[in-house]
């Protein structure tokens, strides 16, 4: 897929460019980002360059992940990164997983919820996703709060799902369906009534 941009009232979600390398590098110095994400630690300028110039464009071309830098529309300030991963866009699966991190200075302003809501809308309406998953290392309460504010429903604790730093960790898993946002789905859904 060719990279696209998405807009909300306050934010622009767009592909990262080489001009964003310093901002991504600076944001990833916060130890909370590599604590819960696969971001390398220490995070070097070269890590940011490879991610922005090589990894993200390749994933867009291969349709394996769609990554957006999240920027404020008024001053073009990086607030974080939002991505759709584990893409299975063909029937019958039609699902993806959403992931994100938020720059320390941008936390507490609702930017991640706003950006994730737009990414979910795009996934459901334009990509045909019928199940959007959120998975995070158990204990990542800020990420969980974002997911819950979006309307994700917790599905439980998955044992030893995430390998991080050579160690297996339990994970929280939740899902969002188009109907949770008042959107239609091509495949009927019949919840278990037992």
Structural description of this entry:
The chain is of the alpha+beta class. It is built from five helices and eight strands. The model has no long low-confidence stretch (mean pLDDT 96). Helices cover 28% and strands 31% of the residues. The protein has an eight-stranded mixed β-sheet, with helices on both faces. A hairpin with a 5-residue loop joins β3 and β4 (78-88).
Give average pLDDT, whole number: 96
Give the helix tally. Answer: 5
Helix/strand/pairing class, anyone? Answer: alpha+beta
From the N-terminal CA to the C-terminal CA, the straight-line distance is: 41 Å
Strand content: 25-35%
Segments where pLDDT lies below 50 for 5+ residues?
A: none
Element-level helix/strand string: EEHHHEEEHEHEE
Largest sheet: 8 strands, mixed
* Rg result: 16 Å
Report the count of strand segments.
8
Strand order of the largest sheet: 1-2-3-4-5-6-8-7
Shape descriptor reads globular
Helix content: 25-40%
Reconstruct the topology from this structure.
Elements: E1 6-7, E2 11-14, H1 21-27, H2 32-36, H3 45-62, E3 66-72, E4 78-88, E5 95-102, H4 111-125, E6 131-137, H5 141-150, E7 153-164, E8 167-176
Parallel strand pairs: 5-6
Antiparallel strand pairs: 1-2, 2-3, 3-4, 4-5, 6-8, 7-8
Helix pairs in contact: 1-3, 4-5
Fill in the keyword field for this structure.
8-stranded mixed β-sheet; 5 helices; globular; 194 residues; 31% strand; single chain; 8 strands
């Amino acid at each position: 897929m060719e990279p696209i941009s998405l807009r909300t009232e306050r934010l622009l979600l767009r592909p990262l460019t080489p001009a964003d390398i310093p901002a991504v590098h600076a944001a990833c110095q916060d130890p909370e980002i590599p604590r819960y994400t696969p971001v390398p630690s220490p995070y070097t300028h070269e890590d940011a360059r490879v991610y922005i110039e090589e990894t993200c464009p390749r994933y867009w071309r291969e349709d394996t992940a769609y990554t957006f830098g999240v920027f404020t529309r008024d001053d073009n300030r990086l607030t974080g990164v939002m991505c759709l991963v584990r893409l299975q866009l063909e029937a019958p699966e039609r699902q993806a997983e959403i992931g994100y991190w938020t720059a320390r200075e941008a936390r507490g302003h609702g930017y991640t919820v706003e950006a994730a809501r737009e990414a979910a809308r795009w996934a459901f309406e334009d990509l045909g996703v019928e199940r959007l998953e959120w998975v995070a290392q158990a204990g990542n309460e800020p990420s969980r709060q974002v997911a819950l504010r979006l309307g994700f429903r917790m599905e439980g604790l998955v044992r030893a799902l995430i390998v991080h730093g050579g160690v297996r960790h339990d994970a929280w898993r939740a899902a969002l369906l188009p109907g949770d946002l008042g959107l239609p789905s091509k495949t009927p859904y019949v919840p278990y009534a037992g």
